[in-house]
Amino acid sequence: MLARIAHELFWLGRNVARAEATARMLDGIFSADLQGRPDDPGLRLTWRSVLRIMSAEQPAQVDRDSVLRALTLDVDNPASVVACIGRAREGARTVRDVISAEMWEAINTTNLTLLEGDLSARLRKGPYSVYGYVRERSALFWGLTNRTMLRDEASAFLQAGGRMESADMVLRMLRVALPQPGDDISWRDGQALALLQATGGFQAFSRSVPGAPDALPVARFLLFERAYPDSVASAVHAVHVALERADHAPSRSEPVLRLSRLVADLEFKQRTSGQDADLARLCEEVQSELALADHDIADRYFAGAVAPGIAIT
Amino acid sequence: MDEILDRFGAPHRHAAALIDALEEMGRDELAAAGRRRDAIFMQQGITFEAGADGSLVKDRPFPLDLVPRILPASEWDHIKRGLAQRIRALNHFIDDVYHGREIVREGIVPWRLIVSRSHFARAVHGIRPPGGVYCHVAGCDLVRDDDGTWKVLEDNVRTPSGISYVLENRVAMTRLVPQLFNRYRVRPVDHYPRLLLEALQAVAPATEGEATVVVWTPGPHNSAYFEHAFLARQMGVELVEASDLVVRDDVLYMRTTSGLARVHAVYRRLDDDFADPLEFRPDSLLGVPGLVRAYRAGTVAIANAFGTGVADDKAIYHYVPEMIRYYLGEEPILENVRTYLLSDDDVREEVLGRLHELVVKPTGESGGKGVFIGPHTPPDELEGLADLIRRDPGLWIAQEMVDLSTVPTAGPDGALSARHVDLRPFAVFGERIRIVPGGLTRVAMVEGSMIVNSSRGGGSKDTWVLEAGDPAEDGATQSTQVHDVVPRMPELRLGGWSDQQQQQQQQQ
What we know:
heterodimer; A: mainly alpha; 14 helices; B: alpha+beta; Dna Ligase, domain 1; 5-stranded mixed sheet
């Protein structure tokens, strides 16, 4: 298939996944923020942390409402939910002939709905409905993808993009939330609970891990647990599987080999790293390895045309 | 008395910010939020059966009033200490009843009264559960007098329900009316399932690895099934019915796809009577034969322990302040509502003369069943009641009417008016007693009514316990500067077939 189309599909997947992850994160942190957590002196998922997660600018004064507005409805902010959906919609329009009509309609309607009406009033009253909508529409999009799109090379790039993005978002949150080496802030369950809620994984965690949702078990779960679809390990695995399917010669493909090594590495670390492992460092390593994989993907499939991407700082 | 507004209609200091926020919202917006609430509760299945009218069972959304109730930190601290004290004493009492009966020998509580209680369980005489804890989960009903004093109205130490609504109410409030939280620091409640799980694991018999905990429900037809499923889901444990459980060689197992799996602790949501047909009611189809044997052998922990119901009885309630003095050597922090035991001839005659101004309750019931409120009961019914009492005085108690405190409550049109409330805080007793901040505030939705039971048209409120030093309470602002070491994050990539797009734009 055309390199350009593969690239559009990859980024369509990424944008839809990013919109959903951002919505879940803001929703989870918003409800945790409304209530006090006396036992947890160093709550790390502050609104400033949210800006760091999204690599957004750090104004001197950070308050809840301005962060919510900037990351949800600000069309001029490329990291906002509406901007992600807007880019996804443009991408989907470009590849309308490749994806199914239902998928196109799903994403196009989402974009229209987010732009119409007085969304900022809804956001002021209670952002839940806005985030709930984005979550549902994202689920609809991926559900339609599974039901109506041919499982060909095109769908492989779409899936690879979506899963690549969810791995990246979870890693960003983990890196900001995990204690840094030399930190003396004792990390307690309040933050972990907020993190779990921010990823939508609370129930999966409590069914899978016996014991309290303390920081380290939660971080290990989000990083390693292959049975949880949104963990880093299962997302990386899914990207690997998708590219293996799309690649004409997977056994000689840089990105496939790199991802395959990363999958094995994560599995190895899960078994060998003890309770005192430096997960913050591990997250950083995984993140940079994924960034390299991202470059490999651009080099190999997208003719290297956009390797560095357009960065925002 | 009203908890939000003073006699002149001005808000108390801790409530001023709430009243401001409500005024800013306005009546229409509050009413609109109420309609959204009903829709969301129906979608999420947060409902209860309003009773079967005809053949159709109609679910109603759980009635949550959007105006919260606020408890300042100091007030909550008082309640918390009082409850912990009371639960410790009750636990001592249960242990004593099934072992040494010291309190009987001291002549404080008559043995005749204890053994005649319907929830007294002869079958568990001499059994001491791990840690000596019997009432792992307790929910005492508290009310406030005209002068604002907190009093205990009932002790629920069998299977108190309502905690799921406390958690769901809070989630709904943060979604529907987040603006009300703006100037408060409200203590969270969502750690309750974790406290419960930790308590259950703490009392489970020793095992390698984690103890297996289950929630035992009578089944989907039980009116509290929503709560059973909620707790199982939140704790990440299995929700079992009797047919899932089996006792082999005095050990409890559940049937799984990979054979029998050992169960170490059971949070049961049904009464003793139904738990084991070999020991309690032989006609129970909901029970597990041999469960009491396994319990006696110490291979499984049951929460609450068998026989705990004896302390739930309303005639026993009368003696709780004495228990506190006797077992703990302390003065009760929370008082009882003035109660009359009707087995005493003089007391009974006095009460029978005052039935029209007292509340009369059957001793072994809960949930407001069979309660007569003197002033609201027609005289002929009161005469019938007097006959019932004379026939079997031990089954009834009488209490003074308490003029419950009120909190402003929103009507369907968003207008506020005062409604009476009570409070059911929930305590968990594992290694120690932990109490979730606040609890379930139940509210009578009819003006002047004191009936708060949700089965009889009562509603509920989110109960906010403020952080100590909440700015709204102290009138001072505080800023917490969080030390924030944050790693360098790579830039957020945005993709885009940049060159080609630019070329296209140039050509346009």
